[in-house]
Amino acid sequence: VQLQASGGGLVQAGGSLRLSCAASGHTDSTGNMGWFRRPPGQDREFVASITWNNRVHYADSVKGRFTLSRDNAKNTVYLQMDSLRPEDTAVYYCRQTPGNYWGQGTQVTVSS
Q: Which end of the chain is more exposed for a tag (fewer CB within 10 A), N or C?
């Protein structure tokens, strides 16, 4: 399984970005997908996850601002990020379980 993350970039505080994570190879539409992030100088942290049947969980820090969805027909998950803050600056990684597959990361930078 290969995961290709995209959609990162530079945005001003209050702006929006949408990240995508496309799975290819031996994909599993019944798997769970998640996003994690690594802020500068910090450990990787959980952002959001979605189960095969669309149950979504969010970190408290992003609740009400981020929306995670999936399109099983396209083997893709989307992370809509609104009301972005400078503290959201990080490299964002997508992950699929079972199997613990990780994407390559996409940089999100939010300027104040």
A: C
Q: How far apart are CA 38 and CA 92, in angstroms?
A: 7
In angstroms, rounded to a whole number, what is the distance separating the alpha carbons of residues 15 and 17?
7
Q: Say yes or no to pLDDT of 26 above 80.
A: no
CB 107 within 8 A of CB 91: yes
Chain centre distance of CA 80: 8
* Upper half-sphere CA count for residue 19 (Cβ side, 13 Å): 34
CB 109 within 8 Å of CB 9: yes
C-beta separation of 79 from 35 below 8 A: yes
DSSP codes of every residue in 52-86: TT--EEE-TTTTTTEEEEEEGGGTEEEEEE-S--G
Q: Which residues of 74-83 are buried (b: 16+ CB within 10 A; e: fewer)?
A: ebbbbbebee
pLDDT digits (tens, 9 = 90+) for 65-107: 999 999 988 989 999 999 999 999 999 999 998 889 999 999 9
